[in-house]
Specification:
Number of domains: 2
Shape: extended
Structural class: mainly alpha
Helix content: over 70%
Distance between the termini: 42 Å
Length: 168
């Protein structure tokens, strides 16, 4: 299997991507004239959102994302099982990331204080008929804080190793 994917993997992935794109474009361009005209008007009426011509693209994207996640998980576990000592750095990195996410989640208040954010939440809840709880806000704030911390660490690492490379 490895030798097959090593030899034909990129061509196979490219071919599948082209095939999916052709099917998706065929679904869009085969829509009736009324639907196309409605979409070209860039109108925000509810009828615009009832079209189903984009469903194939959305569903195949979700399917491929899920498939990629499952395959990455399987190969990751297989790699850890075949080389547990070499996997310690990766495991330590995942634990570090989980720790940073936990710290970000713990530091978040879960309450929106900025009037613009409160207004956006109210618009979202009204238009989507959904409720954003304080737990949702806490998770979102923690995830944003984690992303900012990781961005800062990446920049710091880039600077430190750049300076270190100058003196080597």
């Amino acid at each position: 299997m490895y030798s097959f994917l090593n030899k034909y993997g990129q061509a196979l992935a490219f071919g599948i991507g082209v095939l999916i794109t052709v099917i998706f474009l065929a679904a869009i361009f085969s829509a009736d004239a009324n639907t196309r005209e409605l979409l070209l008007q860039n109108d925000k009426t509810p009828e615009t959102y009832e079209t189903g011509i984009f469903n194939f693209g959305i569903y195949i994207s979700l399917l491929l994302t899920g498939l990629a996640f499952v395959v990455a998980l399987i190969f990751g576990v297989a790699q850890m099982a075949s080389n547990p000592k070499g996997s310690l750095k990766g495991i330590a990195g995942l634990i570090g990331l989980a720790l940073i996410l936990f710290i970000g989640y713990s530091m978040a208040s879960g309450e929106a204080t900025d009037p613009e954010i409160v207004n956006a939440i109210n618009k979202f809840e009204t238009s989507q008929e959904a409720t954003i709880t304080s737990g949702n806000l806490k998770f979102i704030s923690g995830a944003i804080l984690t992303a900012l911390i990781m961005l800062g660490l990446a920049f710091l690492t880039l600077v430190v190793f750049g300076i270190r490379g100058i003196f080597k």
